[in-house]
């Protein structure tokens, strides 16, 4: 409070000292330091790797990068990854809806245990997941031996890759749907039932519209992970070029053969898919925040 | 401690929460800021507590300019509408918080802190709840703990934002008398915000009726009831 | 409510085929191999070193992410600065980016001829093909967990609680340490445990940058892959069971944290 301002009639006598800040805020210096620290940390850890994927892919120019994606093995890897994803996605969606319906619409003992089992794949190493599948369906196991004898191999073939992919993405859709469906309760479905609607009709006209964005969100997470799964697929696929080599497996093979441009071109394409899912996911968070699980609403 | 509010105004961006208001509160008075929501009463209370900063004007405590004092320096015991108790601390630790947060040089020792907390628990007539967590208390108990926590710092004044707002009618009545008793016992200058005219009239020595960021009338409860200064006051009080 | 049979049928069938039977097959394999043999396998110097390395590096990375993740969450929720939305979206990149891609990209950056690797080389710091490289890759994959669990908690902090602390005379740093931090702890620990669980089993992003030198930079999942390539199912199964036990232990810890914090803090 300066004396001069007191003597100027009509002047706004602002007494705000230079050091004033809200009691719930840090000092400007601390804020700036924290922002710089976290942003530069993210730049080094996350943005730099993202950028280097593209610069390495284009190290010999666009033509070389595009050409490396054009050969038969590369094409087969891309097709395989998209196929696997296209199979795994609906499987997980169906499972997610069924599990969420079971858990949120009915009361039964052992529900918490069931949820723990559904979450289990999150905490199991992908390599261990692959190992489990090999042990169950491999040629020298009971089931696997029978299947191979009947010319239905699972391990080192596409069904094994699908199984491994479904394993690592197993909880995604259910995890998204359970909180949303819990929040919405059972009243709407019950009302529709008393009006005489059939179970399917209730699901189709009442439940699905309420959960569609959460379902899409979970499916997106599942897709991103499915396309990029490496550890579990590495174990079960047998890495047969042109047959069971997915995009991530192909990246590894090319990289180990010192074909850097080819490896990073494939990586750039896969990153493109990943960025696309991330973009859609962020758009969902912004547009339909109220229809998603609470922890995605920021 | 007497409080003088000198031509305080507050703008949030383009909207004006307070037009310049002036108000003198003699030491030891129990004052109600009464008005509908949006009348600026809470803003005025927060400016007194140092939680908001006035756009212009001054606040004087005992004749000394206190406008630039930080929240911590004001030593105003503040009771929030939500009580804002620390959920991860026991009642004891909540009340001891202000003492334990002091710099080492002026921090009372452990036994002294315990002594004072026990005394405050007696004052609010809840001597046995020190070990409980806020989630285990009723609404009325929470309010009293918040009051004890504010008193623990030996405040120069007591500021309360809708202290009875979250309580049901019966508890509300009981706690009104509780606040009056504590005020009389401590002799602290006390300002509380309310939208309930019965509460203001029954409890306060001095009622300040506010509307649209202006003071409509300052007076004793009886004066306000019998001689409303403006049409707004007449309507609000008879409502 | 209709659909009990159908939803239970689908759920249990898929759960069995995808998760329970495969894990059961691993446990069966272990049972046939025998506890003593499993113990002997795990105790081999190379296996023990790999398991310990996986756990140790995961722990360090998760601790780093615990601190960095809480700071990042705070900055993203409380501060407004240009580019905040992009930064917020970028936190999910490690979830979205395939691990193999992350692995070769980090290696390209931190190898001695890479952009950051050559800088570090000048001060005599080797990152790629050392344990630092493993640490870096595990920090990358675990980055989002703590931030994403803590963010919603920060958003829900009642500003009056912080103000109350200030009116009681506490400095800002006292408020942060004694009021805010305890409120964030359960969520931060949950995120930490998730990041730890993920990092212990991580394979794709690590093997490119680790150098894979036995006893020094060879992680446990790689050892499983090596055993499988040699058709040594018993040894692979033994290591797998050891890792599965680590996962279960961490799952238990996560659940205990949640039960504990619900009891302590509850909901008002």
TrEMBL record, chain A:
It is a multi-pass membrane protein. The chain crosses the membrane at residues 33-59, 80-103, 123-147, 154-174, 258-280. Gene3D superfamilies: MetI-like. InterPro entries: CysW_permease, MetI-like, MetI-like_sf, Sulph_transpt2. Keywords: Membrane, Sulfate transport, Transmembrane, Transmembrane helix, Transport. It is found in: Cell membrane. It comes from the Bacteria. Residues 8-21 have a biased composition (Low complexity). Its main location: membrane. Residues 1-25 are annotated as: Disordered. Residues 78-279 form the ABC transmembrane type-1 domain. The complex is composed of two ATP-binding proteins (CysA), two transmembrane proteins (CysT and CysW) and a solute-binding protein (CysP). Part of the ABC transporter complex CysAWTP (TC 3.A.1.6.1) involved in sulfate/thiosulfate import. Probably responsible for the translocation of the substrate across the membrane. This is Sulfate ABC transporter permease subunit CysW. The gene is cysW.
TrEMBL record, chain B:
SMART domains: AAA. GO terms for molecular function: ATP binding. Gene3D superfamilies: P-loop containing nucleotide triphosphate hydrolases. It holds the Pfam family ABC_tran. Residues 3-237 form the ABC transporter domain. It comes from the Bacteria. Keywords: ATP-binding, Nucleotide-binding, Sulfate transport, Translocase, Transport. This is Sulfate ABC transporter ATP-binding protein. It comes from Paracoccus albicereus.
């Amino acid at each position: 409070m300066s004396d001069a301002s007191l003597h100027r009639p009509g002047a706004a006598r602002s007494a705000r000292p230079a050091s004033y800040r809200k009691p719930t805020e840090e000092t400007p210096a601390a804020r700036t330091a924290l922002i710089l620290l976290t942003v530069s940390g993210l730049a080094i850890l996350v943005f730099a790797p993202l950028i280097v994927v593209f610069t390495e892919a284009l190290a010999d120019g666009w033509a070389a990068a595009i050409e490396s994606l054009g050969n038969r093995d590369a094409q087969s890897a891309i097709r395989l990854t998209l196929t696997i994803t296209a199979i795994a996605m609906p499987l997980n969606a169906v499972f997610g809806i069924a599990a969420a319906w079971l858990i949120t619409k009915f009361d039964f003992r052992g529900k918490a245990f069931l949820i723990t089992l559904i979450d289990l794949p999150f905490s199991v190493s992908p390599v261990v997941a692959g190992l489990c599948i090999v042990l169950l369906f491999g040629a020298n196991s009971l089931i696997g031996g029978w299947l191979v004898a009947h010319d239905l191999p699972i391990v080192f073939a596409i069904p094994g890759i699908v199984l491994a992919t479904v394993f690592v993405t197993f909880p995604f859709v259910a995890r998204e749907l359970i909180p949303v469906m819990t929040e919405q309760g059972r009243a709407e479905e019950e009302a529709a039932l008393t009006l005489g609607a059939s179970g399917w009709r209730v699901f189709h006209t009442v439940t699905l519209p309420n959960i569609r964005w959460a379902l899409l969100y979970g499916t997106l997470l599942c897709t991103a992970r499915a396309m990029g799964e490496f550890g579990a697929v590495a174990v079960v696929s047998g890495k047969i070029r042109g047959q069971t080599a997915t995009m991530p497996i192909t990246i590894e093979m090319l990289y180990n053969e010192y074909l850097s441009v080819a490896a990073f071109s494939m990586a750039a394409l896969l990153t493109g898919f990943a960025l696309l899912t991330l973009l859609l996911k962020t758009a969902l968070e912004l547009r339909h925040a109220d229809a998603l699980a609470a922890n995605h609403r920021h | 401690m007497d409080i003088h509010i000198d031509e305080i105004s507050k703008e949030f961006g383009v909207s004006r929460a307070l037009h310049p208001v002036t108000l003198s509160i003699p030491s030891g008075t129990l004052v109600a800021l009464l008005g509908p929501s949006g009348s600026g009463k809470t803003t005025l209370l927060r400016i007194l507590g140092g939680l908001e900063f006035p756009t212009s004007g001054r606040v004087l405590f005992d004749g000394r300019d206190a406008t630039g004092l930080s929240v911590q320096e004001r030593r105003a015991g503040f009771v929030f509408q939500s009580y804002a108790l620390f959920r991860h601390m026991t009642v004891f630790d909540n009340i001891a918080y202000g003492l334990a947060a002091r710099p080492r040089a002026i921090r009372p020792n452990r036994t002294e802190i315990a002594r004072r907390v026990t005394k405050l628990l007696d004052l609010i007539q809840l001597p046995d709840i020190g070990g409980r967590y806020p989630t285990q208390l009723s609404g009325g108990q929470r309010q009293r703990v918040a009051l004890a926590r504010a008193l623990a710092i030996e405040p120069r004044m007591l500021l309360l934002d809708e202290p009875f707002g979250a309580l049901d009618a019966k508890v509300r009545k009981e706690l009104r008398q509780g606040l009056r008793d504590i005020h009389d016992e401590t002799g602290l200058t006390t300002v509380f915000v309310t939208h309930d005219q019965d509460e203001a009239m029954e409890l306060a020595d001095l009622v300040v009726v506010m509307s649209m960021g202006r003071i409509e009338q300052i007076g004793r409860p009886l004066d306000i009831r019998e001689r409303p200064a403006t049409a707004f006051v007449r309507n609000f009080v008879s409502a | 409510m209709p659909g009990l049979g159908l939803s239970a049928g689908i759920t249990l069938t898929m759960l069995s085929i995808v998760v329970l039977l495969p894990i059961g097959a691993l446990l069966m394999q272990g049972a046939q191999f025998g506890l003593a043999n499993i113990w002997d396998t795990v105790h081999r110097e190379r296996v023990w070193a790999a398991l310990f390395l996986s756990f140790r590096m995961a722990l360090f990375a998760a601790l780093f992410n615990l601190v960095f993740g809480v700071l990042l969450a705070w900055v993203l929720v409380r501060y407004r600065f240009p580019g905040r939305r992009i930064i917020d979206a970028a936190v999910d990149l490690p979830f979205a980016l395939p691990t193999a891609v992350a692995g070769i990209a980090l290696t390209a950056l931190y190898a001695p001829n890479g952009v950051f690797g050559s800088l570090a080389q000048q001060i005599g710091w080797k990152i790629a093909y050392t344990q630092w490289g493993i640490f870096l890759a595990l920090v990358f994959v675990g980055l989002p967990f703590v931030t994403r669990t803590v963010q919603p908690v920060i958003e829900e902090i009642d500003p009056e609680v912080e103000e109350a602390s200030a009116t009681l005379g506490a400095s800002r740093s006292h408020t942060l340490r004694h009021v805010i931090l305890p409120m964030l702890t359960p969520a931060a620990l949950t995120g930490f445990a998730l990041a730890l669980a993920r990092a212990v089993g991580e394979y794709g992003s690590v093997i490119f940058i680790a150098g894979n030198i036995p006893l020094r930079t060879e992680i446990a999942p790689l050892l499983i892959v090596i055993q499988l390539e040699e058709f040594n199912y018993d040894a692979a199964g033994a290591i797998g069971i050891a890792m599965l036990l680590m996962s279960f232990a961490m799952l238990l810890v996560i659940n205990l944290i949640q039960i504990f914090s619900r009891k302590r803090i509850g909901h008002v």
